[in-house]
Amino acid sequence: MRIAVYPGTFDPVTFGHLDLVERGRKHVDKLIIAILRNEDKKTLFTVDERTAFLRDAVAPWSNVVVDDFDGLLVEYAKRTGASLILRGLRAVSDFEYELQMAMMNRRLAPDLETAFLMPNEAFSYVSSRLVREVARLGGDVQGLVPPTVSKALVGKFGRGLRR
CB under 8 Å to 46, separation ≥6 — which residues? Predict the structure, then answer.
């Protein structure tokens, strides 16, 4: 069985993330979306909230599961039987960091490969950080995130959705 892990914070999940999931899942038997538990990183949504958002969004895809982990990604990948790490590249600015991570992961686990996918150009500028900032300032994030996330952002920031 070909298993891939798509790791991230997903705070919150965006349609850019889901675009990568939809395309990446077609190349493996099982795709695990692995939410990083990092107590040092301040997130807007809890791991449980992010898990719920993702499970709702990927429900139509039977070969996609959502999990969380802490510690080294390569150790998590070994525990799950994954042979591939899926990562997204939106822009050239993402490449240097992602390359460093891929090379370190290769050093730690030589049999674990990393594959990079680029999102659909419609989502190439979308990041969780940008979505949070737009929502915080009262902007409309519909079309960038699933409806459950849009509503949750309104709940966090106390503003209505703009129409």
Answer: none
The token duo for 133 is 């900032």
Name the pTM for this structure: 0.93
Strand partners, 68: 35
**CB of 16 within 8 A of CB of 126?**
yes
| Catalytically annotated residues | 17, 41, 90, 128
Q: Does the CA dihedral 79-80-81-83 come out positive or negative?
A: negative
Query: Residue 51 corresponds to which amino acid?
Result: T
Output the six-digit token pair for 151. 């509503």
Q: Rounded to an integer, what distance in angstroms lies between the CA atom of residue 70 and that of residue 76?
A: 8
pLDDT, tens digit, for every residue of 14-51? Answer: 999 999 999 999 999 999 999 999 888 899 999 999 99
